[in-house]
Amino acid sequence: MNSNDIFQNVQKGFRVTLGAAGTLIDSLQDPRNGEEALNKLRTNPDQLVEELAAKGEMTEQEARTFVDGLLNSAQGASTSSAPGSGSTSNAPSAPPDVQADLEVLTNQIAELRKELQDLTEQDK
Prior knowledge:
This protein is an all-alpha fold. The protein contains 4 helices and no strands. The chain has a domain of 49 residues. α1 crosses α2. The longest helix is centred in the middle third of the chain and has 36 residues.
């Protein structure tokens, strides 16, 4: 198996998981969505997997955009405000629990990347 194939499978699995988590949240808010997902699972599971992967990809892109925006605003705030100037920053800040979750997820992604690199090196 090609290491690129492994990476693509891991990435698709990650996206399907994100899509499934989003679908679970949607089904908790509206039980009809959950019933639709179960019907698709019974009738055409491949289509459901592709839909979950697409939904997960969108979620991944939105999360990346959000994190990049937070990082850019934090960097902009630290370079643009002089100490003691008394100016307040209009940059959005995440609540502490969200920030902690982002740090945990970032660490998990870094660990997965390292494991993937190790597997790729072992295949060579």
